[in-house]
Design goal:
By secondary structure, the chain is of the alpha/beta class. The protein is built from nine helices and eight strands. An eight-stranded mixed beta sheet has the order 1-2-4-3-5-6-7-8, with helices on both faces.
């Protein structure tokens, strides 16, 4: 299954990255977290696509003593109980926010016809591990508890995320299985850092360790801020591959990027899920880099966004 092949980077993305480099875009690992967050917002905004026209509402709540802050997206004109996707944004546990992923979640809502709930979580290094997975777990439980009142269908609830957000989605799926709920019908994982900084047989780390969009140096920067001096997640909440038992999990749609140092550990997680008896679909975009979910102006990345929506529609029953 691990083919280890690659192909040329998408030409449009290569041109955009060359322009960014010529403009002097700094390496995130050279910046303190507040400055890195500002640059990351600029990177996300550079997608430059018109935002999808959906209804948007910010909400706050609490669960288990933790604050929950979410942004809810709902297609216009639909009054029936809708399937719901709880989305966790990427950013290495240190970057990203609801505003930066607004366009991504608007588009996912419009494409899928589902209600999308984007969850905020505390960021490292101000709030190191396990703050993010604890916040993600609180968000899942709070959302499940209020779905009926918010026009959602509790029988059709999925979790999704990209990069660090994919690891958070995987962690809450594991925890929901062990806690007996909330019940999930899909986990949609985009290029997850499934090994949580641990070493392993992941050749893509060397093959794409210099980028184009995320480097080994940047990954170490994120891991140090989140997991401390060791730079490795201590358990499956930050490294799903550490889970001793992967059976009994919801069906998984795993989407990978061919030009990504995380490609092989993401694939290893898919192989482990399948070996444990779970339903798995893997889609790899060989010409795309890490972070493609926010590149909707690029045709290949737009196709990937459609693939996300199609997978959700299938899991929700059409």
């Amino acid at each position: 299954m691990n083919l280890g092949r690659s192909m040329m980077l998408d030409a449009q993305i290569a041109a955009l990255l060359a322009q960014a480099q010529a403009a002097g875009l700094p390496d995130l690992a050279d910046l303190p977290p507040p400055a890195a967050r500002a640059v990351y917002r600029q990177i996300l905004a550079a997608a430059d696509v018109p935002p999808a026209d959906v209804a948007v509402r910010d909400e706050e709540g609490t669960w288990g003593g933790l604050a929950v802050r979410v942004r809810c997206y709902r297609p216009h004109g639909l009054t029936q109980a809708l399937p719901t996707v709880l989305y966790f944004h990427g950013g290495g546990y240190a970057l990203g926010d609801l505003d930066g992923y607004d366009a991504v979640c608007r588009q996912l809502c419009a494409d899928s016809g589902a209600m999308v709930v984007s969850a905020a979580y505390r960021l490292a290094p101000e709030h190191p591990f396990p703050a993010a997975p604890e916040d993600a777990w609180a968000a899942l439980n709070w959302v499940a508890s209020v779905l009926a009142q918010r026009g959602g269908d509790a029988a059709r609830l999925a979790v999704a995320g990209d990069s660090a957000g994919a690891a958070l989605a995987a962690s809450v799926a594991l925890r929901a299985r062990d806690a007996g709920g909330p019940a999930l019908c899909l986990q949609l994982l985009l290029y997850p850092p499934a090994a949580g900084g641990h070493e392993g047989d992941y050749p893509s780390r060397q093959r794409h360790g210099q980028g184009p969009t995320i480097t080994l140096r940047t990954m170490a920067y994120f891991n140090h801020h989140c997991f401390g001096e060791a730079g490795c997640a201590p358990d499956e909440r930050g490294a799903p591959l550490l889970a001793r038992d992967l059976s009994g999990l919801p069906p998984t749609l795993l989407m990978l990027a061919g030009h990504d140092p995380l490609r092989d550990e993401g694939l290893a997680y898919g192989e482990a899920l399948q070996a444990a008896g779970n339903a798995l679909t893997v889609v790899e975009y060989l010409s795309l880099p890490h972070g493609f979910v926010s590149m909707g102006a690029v045709p290949a990345a737009r196709l990937a966004q459609w693939q996300m929506a199609a997978g959700l529609r299938q899991a929700f029953g059409g």
